[in-house]
Amino acid sequence: MVTGACLADIGHDVIILDIDRAKIDKLQKGIVPIFEPSLDRLINKNMDKLSFTTHLDEVVREADIHFICVWTPTMEDGSADISAVRSVARELGKNFNKFKVKAPIIVTKSTVPVGTGKAIRQIVRKEYKNDFAVCSNPEFLREGQAIADMMHPDRIVIGSSDEESAKKVASLYKDLRAPIIITDIPTAEMIKYAANAFLATKISFINEVANVCDVVGADVEAVADAIGMDNRIGKSFLKPGMGYGGSCFPKDVRALKQFSNTNGYDFKLLKSVIEVNEQQRELVIEKLIRATGPLKGKNIFVLGLAFKAHTDDVRESGAIDLVQRLQKQGALVRVHDPLALLNAKKVLDDKVKLVGQPHEGANGAHAIIIATEWPEFKDLDWEIIKKQMTEPIIIDGRNLLDPSKMRELGFLYEGIGRR
Ligand code: UDX
Predict the structure, then answer these.
(1) d(CA 16, CA 1)
(2) Is the pTM of the predicted complex or chain greater than 0.90?
(3) Pick from 46, 88, 288, 355: CA 20 to 30 A from residue 9's CA?
């Protein structure tokens, strides 16, 4: 949707196709079925250039360039499931053949393992004998900032086996004035995984540094600031906490590790990146037990459920994992999130109490854990919250609150690698 809306906004005619009738019905009325800031405004602004359908056969002739933007979820062994991509390629091939579409270009936006471009070519070739091109054009969009990331990209990557189709895809983005890298398809596919795996590695690295800071009495915030000032390192993605979550990093790190493995290479570093990520939630629980003792029968209030702030998405959220681990230890868990309560309800056990107001959750709590870095949690009336709690314990899994302020208020405050 973001790709479609942004392409329309920069002047192209875009048809968005989905097999989910309910989503398409909503979009036709200008209602956006996901939460992404400003996306509804952008879609409604560009309704004259956008159309929505569930019928590939009715629209296949109208497009010159066909983007595949379907999901590639994790399979049990960690590899990416590209069955949706394969099925779209098959349908495109059949319809190109049926309507004798002239020289279509297929572009993968979905994150797909190296070799998928080649597989798409073979699938389409079976159905369609005339000329067509396959390109890879990975997206680098963060949830919550997807429109800004699409409109002001650091770079645009286009993988192709022929220069002419690469240039056609590149021309779509000419008004964005971003650097465009044209390469072959396997390299473009690899760039996406390498980018996400590197960022995830940065997060696991700073998490380990934070854990060492905890045991040696150093302060990770100052360490991250200082190392980030080195241009070779950079300041971003150095926030320690409960580990990375979301629909991309966990899935893509596992998939890169897995397809390296199936191609005969053991990506050792990524094993540790994943292990450290999972360990971070357990360390939060260890801190909690050190502060309050065994968790059986204790009221624990978890503030934040989304995998990061400014989204309602709880996919692979560290907060959800944490809640489940707390329950295993026998804790009575209450949770609050400004946006993600509905989505969390679908995945959490019925025994978890969802509260609409932070003060409701704080009442009689033995401890509070900050699990998502929502800025509004900073502005809660912590003086009142302290009075409401049975024990004034805060474990800040996101290093969101000011430690000295919390301690002045009389809290036993613990962050991640912070003094
Ligand atoms: C990510 C990539 O950033 C984007 O380029 C890609 O296309 C899709 O995946 P997104 O999943 O929206 O985007 O989330 P992002 O903002 O990158 O954060 C991922 C996770 O890492 C979150 O759980 C976040 O809390 C965590 N994180 C991020 C940290 O723990 N520390 C950091 O310093 C940064």
Answers:
(1) 7
(2) yes
(3) 88
Q: Which atom of ligand 1 is nearest to the CA of 195?
A: 5
- Burial readout 121-139 (b: 16 or more C-beta within 10 A, e: otherwise): bebbeebbeeebbbbbbbb
CA-nearest residue, atom 19 of ligand 1: 244
Low-confidence residues of the chain: pLDDT under 50: none
Please state, as a whole number, how many other Cβ atoms lie within 10 Å of the Cβ of residue 83. Answer: 12
**Residue 419: per-residue pLDDT:** 86
Of ligand 1's atoms, which has the minimum distance to the CA of residue 238?
Answer: 33
- pLDDT for res 95: 98
Q: If you measure from the C-alpha of residue 244 to the centroid of ligand 1, how many angstroms do you get, rounded to a whole number?
A: 7
Residue 145: what pLDDT?
95
Identity (one letter) of the amino acid at 314?
Answer: V
Q: Phi then psi for 22, rounded to 5 degrees?
A: -60, -40
Atom of ligand 1 nearest to the CA of 245: 23
